[in-house]
Amino acid sequence: MTTRSRRETVTFKNPFHIRGIARELPAGPYEVVTDEEMIDGLSFAVWRRVATLITVPSEAVQGATEMRSIGSVDLADAQRADVKRR
Fold first, then answer.
1. Which tens digit of pLDDT belongs to each residue from 46-59?
2. b/e sequence 17-44, b meaning 16+ C-beta within 10 Å
3. Which of 67, 81, 74, 80 has its CA nearest to residue 7?
4. Which of 2, 8, 72, 77 meets the CB 3.0–4.6 Å disulfide criterion with 38?
5. What is the dihedral of CA 45, 10, 32, 51, to 10 degrees?
6. Could you give the C-alpha distances from 10 to 31, 37, 38, 40, 73, in angstroms and in order?
7. DSSP alpha helices (H): ranges in the chain?
8. 25 by DSSP, 3-state: which?
9. Distance of CA 39 to the CA centre of its chain
């Protein structure tokens, strides 16, 4: 099965919460990686999202980051809430 990863930077203007991460995250840019796999057997290319990951500051090590799995809907919800707070 063919897979691909898309990377984008998402910027939050305010501190935010996202479901699946039990702490408030600071405002700023965050790298988001979306992994997708191709659905085989069709006459055209169709991709299905299999994972969404966000890079966040580590709680354990100052200056380090960690990749955390999140839901794409949860990310969209956090972005909408950030826009409303501006």
1. 999 999 999 999 98
2. ebeebeeebeeeebebebebeeeeeeee
3. 67
4. 2
5. -60
6. 6, 22, 25, 30, 14
7. 72-85
8. strand
9. 22
